[in-house]
Amino acid sequence: MKDHISREEALELLRKYNKEPFHIRHGLTVEGVMRWYAGELGYGDDKDFWGIVGLLHDIDFEKYPQEHCLKAPELLREAGVGEDIIHGVVSHGYDLTVDVKPEHEMEKVLYATDELTGLIGAVALMHPSKSVMDMKVKSVRKKFKNLNFAAGCDREVIQAGAEMMGVELDELFDKTIQAMQSCEAAVDAEMKDLGLEE
């Protein structure tokens, strides 16, 4: 697997179709999470590729919410993005908007962690620190069970993603917390550099 687009070009492309700071932050966070998992799972040489898929995964969500993962291939192809990245991006909409199944381990990780980063981020906002640095698995587990909390985060997708990856939910929670801890400071700094602090 190799990228056909630089990280700078990918960020520019994300920002072309996404203006909301929340969506940019989510893209940057998922990028960092994907890079961490690449290293953790023995794909360190591919961490830039994994990160770019994470950065671009919601490229069409803000502008085309009704066509999420359906519009993405067109936007990405126009920008000269390779089919391997496009498949990775589209597969996270499996069984929701598309029938493109996550096949590569990278795609399974994206599928499992995308919604979960949103849930963990929402739990962090409840903490005095507003940070994931002091996050515990039990806090996430408790909020996961409360379906009224961060109701937009699809628990069934998170559960199905854990099964795809062959891990228990608590392990997925723990690793994704670690992944978010690894990139929180960098995401905050980049949001500031972009003038997009919420």
From TrEMBL:
Keywords (A to Z) from UniProt: Hydrolase
Keyword Hydrolase: yes
Single GO molecular function: hydrolase activity
Cross-referenced PANTHER family: HDIG DOMAIN PROTEIN, METAL-DEPENDENT PHOSPHOHYDROLASE
UniProt superkingdom: Bacteria
Lineage per the UniProt record: Bacteria, Bacillati, Bacillota, Clostridia, Peptostreptococcales
Name under which the protein is recorded: Hydrolase
Organism annotation: Hornefia butyriciproducens
